[in-house]
Design a protein that fits this description.
CATH class of chain A: Alpha Beta
Strand order of the largest sheet of chain A: 2-1-7-4-5
Oligomer: heterodimer
Number of domains of chain A: 1
Number of strands of chain B: 9
Number of domains of chain B: 1
Structural class of chain B: alpha+beta
Helix content of chain A: 10-25%
Radius of gyration of chain B: 17 Å
Largest sheet of chain B: 5 strands, mixed
Strand content of chain B: 25-35%
Shape of chain B: elongated
Order of helices and strands of chain A: EHEEHEEEE
Structural class of chain A: alpha+beta
Strand content of chain A: 25-35%
Helix content of chain B: 25-40%
Distance between the termini of chain A: 44 Å
CATH superfamily of chain B: Molybdopterin biosynthesis MoaE subunit
Number of strands of chain A: 7
């Protein structure tokens, strides 16, 4: 259980927010057994990458490739993606 | 890279050009009297703010669109849209294909296609596929202009409380 991976959350960024942050992915560490809301996770990320803060109200969050509400609890091992308004097609 | 989930659905995201001929071939089956195909293409002029515009034309010229996606989730969502189309309308076959990377002027970035016994259902299901893709699939486009400038296209905002799959 000392494996760092078991206590971390992978965060993926795309398009405009990826460029603002200057990274396409990062890893956030959780304390053992800790679960945080997706919204709080965004706040933690914005503390490290303040450039993304203005976009956060528009961001939809996906956890493990499904859209979730901000109160969704994120756990270690989850894959979290920041989805700015989409423009495919 | 082509992923065919079963004989009647074809869903893919690829970097290479999309083939209308292959789509037409896939959709024309004996059970279907109506085939509806939507093509999204790169156009030269798009609406942007006045300050960015070319004074002569009133609009800036786009030279290409560049698409980026969260591929595993985009494919998962596209499968969901197609499955939903099958459950809502009498659909014989359906396809939803998206090109990513650079898409030059006039070329096809997306194809939504539906084959159904009658045209009303083919139109409705095809429109559902492209409209839903544009609001839900995690895909983004960046416009590259003739002057070397570029910008991410402001996308569709999220409907509130959007979560899946309950809201579908």
């Amino acid at each position: 259980m000392g494996d760092k991976k078991l206590q971390s959350v992978q965060v993926l960024l795309f398009s405009v927010i990826r460029e603002q942050a200057g990274i396409d992915s990062t890893t956030l560490q959780l304390d053992p057994g800790e679960a945080v809301s997706a919204g709080l996770l965004l706040e933690r990320l914005a503390a490290t990458y303040p450039a993304i803060r203005p976009m956060l109200p528009l961001v939809r969050i996906a956890v493990n490739r499904e859209y979730v509400p901000r109160e969704h609890m994120v756990q270690a091992g989850d894959e979290v993606a920041l989805i700015t308004p989409v423009s495919g097609g | 890279m082509t992923l065919i989930s079963n004989d009647s659905a074809w869903i893919t995201i690829q970097e290479t050009p999309l083939s209308l001929e292959e789509v037409s071939e896939f959709l024309r089956v004996e059970e279907a009297g109506a085939v509806d195909i939507f093509l999204g293409t790169t156009r030269r002029w798009t609406e942007v703010e006045e300050k960015e515009t070319d004074r002569k034309t009133g609009r800036p010229e786009t030279v290409l669109l560049e698409y980026e996606c969260y591929k595993p989730m985009a494919l998962k969502e596209m499968h969901r849209f197609v499955n939903e189309a099958f459950s809502r309308w009498p659909v014989c076959r359906a396809c939803l294909l998206h090109r990513i990377g650079e898409v030059p002027l006039r070329e096809i970035s997306v194809i939504a296609g539906v084959a159904a016994p009658h045209r009303a259902d083919a139109f409705a299901a095809c429109r559902y596929l492209i409209d839903t893709l544009k609001t839900r699939a995690p895909i983004w486009k960046k416009e590259h202009f003739v002057d070397g400038d570029s910008r991410w296209v402001e996308g569709d905002s999220a409907p509130e409380h959007l979560s899946s799959p309950d809201t579908m």
